[in-house]
C-alpha cells in the first residue's frame, strides 16, 4: 500500500511539473501574434524571428521536410512572393499543451485571404524555450 501511495505522489508531482504558468502560454501566443502581424505587413524576415535561427529547424510542408532557418525563409519567399502572394493571414489556435517545462505543442489553423484565392489549412508546432524566449523548432503545416 505504501508503494502505491508513493507512486501516486510521484505521478502527481511529475504531471504538475509540466503545468506552465499562464505567462508561458501567453508568451507563445505573443510569438504567433507577432508572426501574424509581420506576415500581414509583408515582412518575412521579421515573421521568421518566431523560429529558432538554426540548421536544426524542421519545417514540414506539402513538398516534404526542410531543414534550416535560411532554407525555410527562402522557401517562404519563393512560395509567397510579394504582398499580393502573402495576402492577409489569420490563425485559429486550438490547443497549447506543455510537454515539459521548456517544450510546448501547439495545434492551430491558418487562413490566407488573397485577391485570387483563400488557401487554408492546419499546423502543428513544437516550441522550445531557449534563453528565456519561446521559439518554434518544428513546424508541420498543411
UniProtKB/TrEMBL annotation:
It holds the Pfam family DUF4440. This is DUF4440 domain-containing protein. InterPro entries: DUF4440, NTF2-like_dom_sf. Residues 1-19 form the signal peptide. Gene3D superfamilies: 3.10.450.50. Keywords: Signal. SUPFAM superfamilies: NTF2-like. Residues 28-136 form the DUF4440 domain. It comes from the Bacteria.
Amino acid at each position: 500500500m505504501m508503494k502505491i501511495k508513493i507512486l501516486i505522489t510521484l505521478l502527481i508531482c511529475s504531471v504538475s511539473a509540466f503545468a506552465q504558468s499562464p505567462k508561458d502560454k501567453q508568451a507563445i501566443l505573443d510569438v504567433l501574434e507577432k508572426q501574424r502581424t509581420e506576415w500581414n505587413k509583408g515582412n518575412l524576415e521579421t515573421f521568421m524571428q518566431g523560429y529558432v535561427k538554426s540548421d536544426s529547424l524542421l519545417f514540414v510542408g506539402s513538398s516534404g521536410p526542410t531543414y534550416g532557418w535560411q532554407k525555410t525563409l527562402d522557401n517562404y519567399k519563393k512560395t509567397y512572393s510579394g504582398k499580393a502572394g502573402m495576402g492577409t493571414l489569420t490563425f485559429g489556435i486550438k490547443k497549447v499543451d506543455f510537454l515539459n517545462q521548456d517544450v510546448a505543442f501547439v495545434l492551430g489553423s491558418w487562413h490566407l485571404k488573397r485577391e485570387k484565392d483563400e488557401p487554408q489549412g492546419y499546423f502543428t508546432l513544437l516550441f522550445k524555450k531557449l534563453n528565456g524566449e519561446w521559439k518554434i523548432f518544428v513546424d508541420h503545416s498543411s
